[in-house]
Amino acid sequence: MWLFSSWLWQRKMQHFNTKDCPKISPDAYIMFEEFYIFATELARLCERGKAVPMSTSHSFNCDGKGTANSTGSKRMAYEVFLGGSCNPTTWRSDIAIPTLQNLGITYYNPQVSQWGPELIAQEYEAKQTARVLLFVIDNQTRNTAGIIEVAQLAATRSESLILVIYPYRQGQTILGEAVSTLEYYDLMNGLLVLQYLMERQKIPIFENISVALNCTSKILREDINIQTLHSEDGIKSTRISLNQNGIDIIMLREIFKSMEVNDSGTVSLREAWLTLQSSARCNMSVSEVCNAVNKSETYRALISSYKGKGDPAEQRIDFEQFCTLSSELPWRTKGNGISYESEIPSIWSILCRKASKFLRRTIVHPFNRFLDWTNSFTPETEKKDLYIGVVNNDLLWLESSAAPLIESMGLTYFRPSLNEYNIRILPQELQRMKNSRLIFLIVSQQSRGIAIMALAAHLVGLRAKLVLCVQSLPEDCVLSGEKLSEQATKDYNRARMYLADYATREGVPVFQNVADALQHAIQLVQSSC
Questions:
Q1: CATH of 247-333, one of 3.30.70, 1.10.238, 2.30.30, 3.30.700
Q2: Are 151 and 455 in contact (CB under 8 A)?
Q3: 21-25, 95-99, 387-391, 446-450 — which is least confidently predicted?
């Protein structure tokens, strides 16, 4: 087909004055009559025994619209694929494309005003052949499919991937819709899980597009490995610490969850007050913390607005009110963050500091991404048959339905230590998954599911033995008492469709019904025993 498109490009150029004609891409679409003419001429050449050229001297900067600029290199191979956040973001046209053009670097831009399925093959080819995959996670969109795709590429294309992250902000809007505290938590938690998966593969993360573009130029022009970039190149620290934007709210979510009774979504004001005192991480006495809470405007407002009978401290508050109350405590501004360096050691960073340049270049061999997973030498006595990955209310299903069924068949299983995945428990959970013969993950319709979907996509890329249950969010979806907008529902379902499609193409069984999925997982484990 490349030969055909090249022939078509040359034929069309014969019919136009080169000064007046717009440049035509070799991957332009044509009518059946033109295809027939091409096939006829190709048959004549073959009958005469003439050699048919199978390559062309043209390659292009492409914007996905069929327009292109000749650069004189071979084949339709772009140096950079510009992936990540699309409409309404303008980072490509405002920053990335002008910079790459000034640097003489070829690129493929998948962002178009009207996307169509006919662009799928073109995008796939550009992504497969690009030397650098530059992905930007911008906070103007929910980035649901983008996060899943980056998690997948972190497992399969770690030697090519560069990521730029602009974190979400509390109180911001997305496409004109206010982001609630709960959604902000889910979005930030998804980003942090993605960041952890990236760090495990030693993939650089940037906080600025221009800096990432300068490093892209360095990688291409000096022919160096992406994974040899260091802090002097402007990459983010390869350690996740509690000082980062968004971590505090994850800690608060865990504190709030620990106080919840029967997943009611509320806690008593008294319990919240006492827990915030005990959780305060600052150099203050208990009396000073108590005094700070009592002086809190939010606390006083909640007490004064109480209209029930009895002790006003027994009224119930939700997570958003809990966050507001905690934000007024001094410990939030003391800067006493907790480093994860002791919890998440990076053996790769230690090795790379001591290794030679040659060794650093060899550890990123494409096949090495599988060694960490498939070649984990765990004694059989420490393994279990299944790892059941669930979030939120599906833990009740696991305990009441799945666990008795699994145990009745004489099988063993791991279950998550919490009802959600975050960077605090991820190292432990990944180790449990490695020690399981099969991993069964459920993307439930009772959660936004960003973190577990990113984890699932990464595991598919690592060739872990998986079964997935992926459930779409229904119309008028309500999560934790919040009704999702139509746009939000579409965004989260888009990620589910991307994950299900990717997993299916990689041979991973994907179900929508959780009972069917569990039964299939059990059968796979039993058949391998």
A1: 1.10.238
A2: yes
A3: 21-25
